[in-house]
Amino acid sequence: MPTYDYECSACSHEFELVQSMGDSKKKKCPECGRLKLVRLIGGGGAIIFKGSGFYTTDYRSESFKAGHKAAQESEKKVSEPASSSGGEKSESKTKDAAKASSPTKPDKSKKSP
């Protein structure tokens, strides 16, 4: 239910009142008792959504939920082996590259004539 601001034009008393949208405006001031109440236009009246049912994901079908879950699981399976095997491959490539780039030294134990 919305909250309305009221002000008495006779005694300048201001107050807030929670009313249903279908209720009529109040006319009698609770402070002075005169019929001089005026309902003010407020800028802070906003609807507050509480609980479930306000997001698009709250009403997804069961088939959508199952498909989404399966897609997430398949992404995990694909990313896990790639990251572990990719690390091993890169290590072996660096070792092979190091061997190929190092010059071969002649064996000094053999003397040439």
Observed structural traits:
113 residues, alpha+beta, three-stranded antiparallel β-sheet, 1 helix
Describe the sheet with the most strands.
3 strands, antiparallel
Structure classification:
alpha+beta
Average pLDDT level? 75
What is the alpha-carbon Rg in Å?
39 Å
Can you write the helix and strand succession as a string? EEEH
Order of strands across the biggest sheet?
2-1-3
**Cα end-to-end separation:** 108 Å
- How many helix segments? 1
Helix content: 25-40%
| Number of DSSP E strands | 3
Low-confidence stretches: none
Q: Report the portion of residues in β strands.
A: 5-15%
**Shape, per Cα inertia axes:** elongated
Topology:
Layout: E1 3-8, E2 14-18, E3 37-40, H1 62-101
Antiparallel strand pairs: 1-2, 1-3
Brief summary of the model shown:
With 113 residues, the protein is α+β, with helices and mostly antiparallel strands. Helix content is 35%, strand content 13%. It has one helix and three strands.
